């Protein structure tokens, strides 16, 4: 069996589902998953479809025919992924280690279908962790007045290893526009608040000051506006007046780990689609 | 515009989605929602689809053609619902009033697209509530040794008003097999535990005794085995050692109200399908 | 048995708990609940204590002695409540009825230990609900350029009935400063977002636009800064890209009802204490 | 400053709180935390108290005086812990690695105030993980007909290192009575269901079969009756009909990790007290 995952968005029109599913059927494909959504306001159609084909089917041919027969007709933006080499994921960290331990533990447990060719950090602190998990560690200091040097080094490393996805695992630096543009909707950050509340620095301190009864975490794609990119996943935890800022930070660690891990998993299983600074999450 | 909701289950086969969606497209229908699921273990295909047709379309003709062209070919069990008269819902109660207040409040707020031709009770206590909401109230005592009389009266009332759905809003009597068979998958009960834990009587007492840290509620279709029918919805609430049985009962009220209301809403919007004593819940 | 509830806050000092509990013991009281909290940053001590005394105990005498022996010594701000007449609660509404139905259903079920001498509204729409629950309904239009007239009428009604607590059950008007000052920490509002996100008008519209994956509701005491008062309770519900604004509004109704009800219950059971625009919630 | 944590339970009586807090005050202690609970049904008083004393205070003397003046008077069962050497925790594993990775990640991050002198396993599979975290790994096969050999080896290892707490991190063997008796309320297990639902083997399979809409995990102290010991912590996750058993197992991993970690943290911070097969959890 060979399997494809098809992601589509296009102007809404009558007959899209019938056309796509008939196309698959005509090519002897067996649809094992279909989910669709229409943004009624903007009249945009979104679809995710998984299909299995007989072993001998040439996916290249199917792609070509899909482009000609379906894609052009409905003015689709589409990707057809085949189960192939896993995504190459780079992890950026600073000094906090809990998200890094969590990701690497999941990776070693076989929970994440990726390779991790590099961990990049602006500090040396977490190097021993990278080493104990046998992952190459690249220290890239980000110094005042020399940020462009760091950026160039980042791009060089990422391109050399043909990185597909960047995960900011509590990386405490602003990502410069060039790097964001080189990885559109392919940089996932974890922010330690239920955005849009407490964007920016020190969200736990702000949450404590405001006296909220819940704290949260948000994983999102990085865009040029800080903490304002498309949200992939959020979750929360109840707190009370008796929790100090230190307690919030500690309680928040589990939230951050889980919300980031869910975001990564959704991305690598091709279940996210971005439109108008929002995500469609297929389930 | 006229709108249909189509619910299907049948042996899994290749091409079902293409056939159904092409059928809709050929009849000038516009699919506005599709969700499907395959029970891989039992090889059963399930689908829910909503479609809009032009005003003049005769749904009767479409139904006939669907039966002949699609339904028979794939050995489908299917229903095609048209937006018509709302469901007729009967509420059974005993002495607890919180679920009744909740359902009637939602009904008056326009949240539930049903009519409520009757409230049936084995006690007179809640009659004033029925009256203040202008709903006919039928007291039907269920007496030892005379349970068959009550059953006959129930069936008579339900059939006279052509009731579609029965909601047991903390009704403290066992439903006899005849009544269950007359309303298969059309009687919704709320049980005050996260089933299968604490089935049967006094679940809050059992939860207290066991020292659980969460309590729950479960709405399910009633089958002949007590508290063992297909689960529609469940939710939970955190508790601690400091909660007395009385506290659990009070805390549980909100759970019961919400979990029952969600179960009712899923049923009346045709989003539930029962197979093998489990529900498929389309979202 | 006669029972007291004691709420205290004062500068933190050594020996407060020992002094207070010994005082209770010396007066033959039996402590059945004690909870305390120290705001370490501001060095403030908070305590809530429930105690039972023999029937014949004169609480007036105990109060006097507590003031002289304990209160003054530790510069306490304190209230000693005796189980007496229930609080008098006024409900303000506009046109949304779901919170009103919820509160009145709970009230009639015996869940809320209050009397409700009045429902005040700037519209006539919900009058029939008030009538069906036998609660006096006072329409007080809030007209442009004549807001002071409305305010005067509000104060007159509230003072005439000696109202203790005002609940804004989706009341769609800004409360003027005079009314807020007349009821400090005694006006509870429900805001339909997880504050501080989406303060102000149309939070569900903003939540939809931002693409959040959770929505929330917040009950808080009203202060002069809009939606910025001390938070009593918050809760959230998960949503997805597929939910329209209308869906959010509908889903949010249950959140609003529950979060407001919890806020009311905490207040009337004397479990809230406000300090520095934050609440201490004793459990 | 030297700090104590005091845990008490005794028959309920008037004046206990006053006596204890006055005792602390008289010895120049500053109470920084107090929480108490009365089991009204069984008339048992429970208390947890933290207090700071001046550096020079001899805790041994205080203990002696507490025993004579307070403990005997109220027939207390009590422990007075001083901040000293961290607990010695042994981890038992089989082949599942996710809980082990999670615990070791937290340990290395400084989240758990323990030492981990050993990981014991009935298989060799997880030895490399132990090594990468520099923890001694002891393989102890548990063979049919030779279980007593394993038990003896376990006891020998545990006693040699003076282990205080055993954590069963998805250890797939029944713990024999002798070992349980040697570590009463000091063996924490993680069970992958919301107990008492789905006790015993293969809870995810049972959950799938029953069609529940929530799955859970439970951390509890091990007693001789399987999966029936005092519950420390529980949490749940929502699922749907579309989740296969494999999905449940994967989704459950995060629940297991978090619920076990919370159980461990509550135990090592002396916030749990067991009575009548239930836990009191001080917060």
TrEMBL record, chains A, B, C, D:
Pathway: Purine metabolism; IMP biosynthesis via de novo pathway; formate from 10-formyl-5,6,7,8-tetrahydrofolate: step 1/1
NCBIfam families hit by this protein: PRK06027.1 (NF004684), PurU (TIGR00655)
Limits of the ACT domain: 5-75
UniProt catalytic activity: (6R)-10-formyltetrahydrofolate + H2O = (6S)-5,6,7,8-tetrahydrofolate + formate + H(+)
Pfam families linked to this entry: ACT, Formyl_trans_N
Catalytic residues as annotated in Swiss-Prot or TrEMBL: 227
Keywords: Endonuclease, Hydrolase, Nuclease, One-carbon metabolism, Purine biosynthesis
Superkingdom, natural source: Bacteria
Name of the protein in question: Formyltetrahydrofolate deformylase
Species the sequence originates in: Autumnicola patrickiae
Protein family: Belongs to the PurU family.
Function: Catalyzes the hydrolysis of 10-formyltetrahydrofolate (formyl-FH4) to formate and tetrahydrofolate (FH4).
Enzyme type, top EC level: hydrolase
Gene label: purU
PROSITE patterns on file: ACT
InterPro entries: ACT-like_dom_sf (IPR045865), ACT_dom (IPR002912), Formyl-FH4-Hydrolase_C (IPR041729), Formyl_transf_N (IPR002376), Formyl_transf_N_sf (IPR036477), PurU (IPR004810), PurU_ACT (IPR044074)
One GO molecular-function entry: formyltetrahydrofolate deformylase activity
EC nos: 3.5.1.10
């Amino acid at each position: 069996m060979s399997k494809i995952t098809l992601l589509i968005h296009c102007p809404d029109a009558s007959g899209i589902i019938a056309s796509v599913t008939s196309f698959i059927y005509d090519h002897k494909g067996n649809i094992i998953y279909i989910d669709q959504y229409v943004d009624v306001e903007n009249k945009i159609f979104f679809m995710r479809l998984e299909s299995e084909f007989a072993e001998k089917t040439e996916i290249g041919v199917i792609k070509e025919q899909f482009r000609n027969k379906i894609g052009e007709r409905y003015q689709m933006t589409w990707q057809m992924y085949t189960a192939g080499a896993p995504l190459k994921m780079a992890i950026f960290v600073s000094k906090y280690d809990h998200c890094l331990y969590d990701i690497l533990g999941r990776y070693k447990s076989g929970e994440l279908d990726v390779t991790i060719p590099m961990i990049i950090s602006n500090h040396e602190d977490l190097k021993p962790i990278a080493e104990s998990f046998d992952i190459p560690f690249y220290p890239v200091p980000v110094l005042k007045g020399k940020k462009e040097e760091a950026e160039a080094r980042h791009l060089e490393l990422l391109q050399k290893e043909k990185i597909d996805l960047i995960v900011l695992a509590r990386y405490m630096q602003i990502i410069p526009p060039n790097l964001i543009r080189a990885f559109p909707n392919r940089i996932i950050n974890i922010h330690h608040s239920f955005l849009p509340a407490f964007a920016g620095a020190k969200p736990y301190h702000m949450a404590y000051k405001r006296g909220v009864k819940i704290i949260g975490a948000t994983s999102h794609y990085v865009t040029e506006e800080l903490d304002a990119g498309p949200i992939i996943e959020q979750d929360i935890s109840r707190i009370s007046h008796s929790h100090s800022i230190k307690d919030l930070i500690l309680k928040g660690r589990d939230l951050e780990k889980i919300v980031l891990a869910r975001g990564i998993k959704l991305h690598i299983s091709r279940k996210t689609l971005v439109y108008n600074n929002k995500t469609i999450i297929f389930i």
